[in-house]
């Protein structure tokens, strides 16, 4: 078979033309002769697909609900030494984006396509799926995943942690399993299929069956399993590369973690969320993460100034963030165990690691007051008064962060702090606060600029084409005989060695249940969405200073990266241009019909109780 000798970052390996064109085993016809007997017949064998000699391993790491300004790697006050090390020996991307909520981000990530294009407009849950092409939560077979592509190019493929893309109706041990991880290209899976789970009593799955959790924290279990998958494969086939998708439930609620991590930050945040934002903003400038002339947005008007809180409020709210900080540092520790193991088995230098620090902005689902356990004050409806909520949390202070804190999540003021330097948060597709998440790229064998910062615009669907270009694998025309749809992401490899290269991802839409925006060459138009308070929208409406006055806004992100100067009235022509572009993207990507949070509330109310 012909070989193409390829060099990337000074690392040379051979890529067969068959691999580059992705001529799979399923498509090859029989080349021998079938006679009436063996003597008159000629055997023919299909050679097993193997990756090029020396091909890198690939690890994708996707965290959950972190916030741009949480980790020390991007200026936060929460120590993440593993992330720091990867970034200091690789690249930090500061202008990278996600879909603003978990399942759409994961669908776009794994397929390299926009989330409505792959039918994941919202979630795959019964209460949020709708019978339309962009909304049914069932990724079609013509939208192949990175795991399917790499497996057909000689890689072992593993996934651990949160999957989040299996329809509720299919998520039993009876299957069908075509939309479980095993049906989307992963040789092995260990984790949970839904959007969130208890970290000590997870709804746990291994391969195609539910299993009983062993009582340890889920992050410890998935790290052990990832290591065992790698070791088992390397013992059987030492030269075969692997692809690992490592997606912990952390730091999504419930915030649960062992005592030594819960208490790690005791007293460290007593000065409150306003002080945190100021410190982080200063650190981000010092690190070069944000422009030197940037200004910090005003505190959201729904959030009280820290100095105006009562002593009880300060005590409770500080404890929530201490626990969250410990949870994030613990998550960094578990990622560190994986990275250290790769080093111990001499695989780290030949492993491309792409780490996305959050699948959306920091979570606003902890209410204005924080949540500990399931109660009438759920993340969707704040039915307790402020005084009642603070008293309830004060009574449960010792439960915060423990296995008994089954709905543990911090209050809104800390969400804004964790999202420094942006406005708004998770779910808000109209805002950088909902969609902007840091990316770390690490490949010690080839990235020579240690600690480089990249400002090129990127979106989560870019990681699939980035990985394929890096490995010199072309996107396949067919997977298992099924013709594939176009890849919509844009490879970031061009920027690895050129920090001045202009952005190649030029246009990107965002839409999450009514909230929407459109980006084009540095300009962005966005529209928030007012949710009916009577349908459980009180918390979500904190995303606007005045929920009764919602209009399209226009920002020039090249000059105003954190959206503080609305140019809609000054430049109405640009606004209309972008609004028209959004409609074009809506038609092309199956966004119609516009499904909103109000529609979700109505759907939830009409479903039979289970």
From TrEMBL:
The keyword Transmembrane helix does not apply. Keywords: Calcium, Hydrolase, Metal-binding, Signal. Coiled coil: none annotated. Pfam families: Sulfatase (PF00884). Residues 56-472 form the Sulfatase N-terminal domain. The keyword Hydrolase applies. GO terms for molecular function: hydrolase activity; metal ion binding. Residues 1-20 form the signal peptide. SUPFAM superfamilies: Alkaline phosphatase-like (SSF53649). PROSITE patterns: SULFATASE_1. Belongs to the sulfatase family. This is Arylsulfatase.
